[in-house]
Amino acid sequence: ARIRHYKWEVKYEFKSPDCYRKLVIAINGKTPGPTILAQQNDTIIVELKNSLLTENVAIHWHGIRQIGTPWFDGTEGVTQCPILPGETFKYQFVVDRPGTYLYHAHYGMQREAGLYGSIRVSVPDGVSEPFAYDYDRSIILNDWYHKSTYEQATGLSSIPFAWVGEPQSLLIQGKGKFDCASVTQPNVCNATNPECSFYTMTVIPGKTYRLRIASLTALSALSFQIEGHNMTVVEADGHYVEPFVVQNLFIYSGETYSVLVKTDQDPSRNYWATTNVVSRNATASAPPGLAILNYYPNHPKRSPPTTPPSGPFWDDVKPRFQQSLAIKSHRDFVHTIPQTPDRVIVLLNTQNEVDGRRRWSVNNVSYNIPHTPYLIALKQNKTHLFNQAPPPEGYDFVNYDIYKRQNNSNATSSDSIYRLKFNSTVDIILQNANTMVVNNSETHPWHLHGHDFWVLGYGEGKFDINNDPKKYNLVNPIMKNTVPLHPYGWTALRFIADNPGVWAFHCHIESHFYMGMGVVFEEGIEGVGKLPSSIMGCGKTKESHNP
Ligand code: C2O
Ligand code: CU
């Protein structure tokens, strides 16, 4: 195993990823930032210099479990204090599983200012994968707003609530195209800026490409498709999938997939790759994102002679359920799953009003990030720094009507956490419901830090605690770190609480987590080693041990 050393400078810069000029947060001048390339069991060291002038930062390594290094998970308020302007912070951790992962800011709403990138971990030399390919490529899909994250965040926490609305563009590997004709101010939008030329992936005819596709959208659920080419899904969140073929791939924020694409079409032309919004009203949202699949030796900038393929209908939830259900573990890579849980936690997802503010809640509790990170508070026995009452494990199953717009007026906000028994098996049932708008339920991609979980099942409607567990897939469930909770549906997961630390579990929609849609788990805190002093400095972390 090797050490991979990176030096990053994080800085605000003017960029025009979709032709529209705005302030973005770049790493070494780029968004998406540099790709981390490593082999299984390598050690990654990132020396991060915060040059944001007046703003803190923290970076999360999404999908990396941080075994033995829970303090480098990068989650502000949970595992570390934020990095102050002018400071350099050293992240150091081992990538212990091959696969496709991500990194992104985990502080306020900085992620959607452009602070993100890919991590690609390959298998060690001599180890083979259950599929063959000639070339390996990565792309990140994202949605993009022209308003600053501050304007958005302020609106979300204002009375009355001010919603930023739908994104202006969809980006494929950091490139999109906003219609500059609609912009009247001079020098803001320039349709011929090379920064917003189509992302082009050049391919050689007759080959097989492994395309690693990730989504880090702030809001949107997406579909991705390549004109005239099928995709064979082979990896999900770092785990091998029993291969299946799709025409379009549904992908939710925080998910990663590898698909195999054969370049077996007419080689005399180029093809469109497109991404479009699903689950939210696509006619009101950003137009499809476009990229060019360039068959060598055609000119890379030559537009395909066709109109870009339109994706699936945004409001058709059936095919999205179907894809979720189709993702099973590859038969040769099934991780043995405990057949019964030690604890079952039901998490009802609702939209609420707390103290007159619009919030998202879980079991009627809307999550607040504390000032002193839990990891430090717990290690230093400063438990008075957050609410010690355990959060609720369920809700009124029998009487709650998930299809009805509820008042949900009894919601509170809290920074309390779930304390899990070390090495116990925990089931999580995510239950979706109607929002504060009549006849509306949204898609929520839930992401767990520090673990992979087994996906036991998905269902429509209200979870039936007596019968639905009988239908769980305990034979070949996929392991993932992010799963969608579909509108008016439920999703069931199982994980083993075997990673000493404090771990966030939250909706990956940036505004939803900001508005309280998350919980935190603690397990095996006594097994956590000595905390590095670099993660301290905020809240009450500087106080002496004696109360
Ligand atoms: Cu990718 Cu806590 O997030
Ligand atoms: Cu959500």
Automatic annotation (TrEMBL):
Cofactor(s) the protein requires to work: Cu cation
SUPFAM superfamilies: Cupredoxins (SSF49503)
Record's subcellular location: Secreted
One Gene Ontology term of the molecular function aspect: L-ascorbate oxidase activity
The enzyme's E.C. designation: 1.10.3.3
Coiled-coil ranges from the UniProt annotation: none
Any single Gene Ontology cellular-component annotation: extracellular region
Catalysis performed (reactions): 4 L-ascorbate + O2 = 4 monodehydro-L-ascorbate radical + 2 H2O
Matching PROSITE patterns: MULTICOPPER_OXIDASE1 (PS00079), MULTICOPPER_OXIDASE2 (PS00080)
Record domain Plastocyanin-like: where: 10-123, 138-297, 403-524
Keyword list, A-Z: Copper, Disulfide bond, Glycoprotein, Metal-binding, Oxidoreductase, Repeat, Secreted, Signal
NCBIfam families reported in the protein's UniProt record: ascorbase
Assembly, per entry: Dimer.
Protein family (similarity comment): Belongs to the multicopper oxidase family.
Protein's recorded name: L-ascorbate oxidase
Species per Swiss-Prot/TrEMBL record: Tripterygium wilfordii (Thunder God vine)
Lineage: Eukaryota, Viridiplantae, Streptophyta, Embryophyta, Tracheophyta
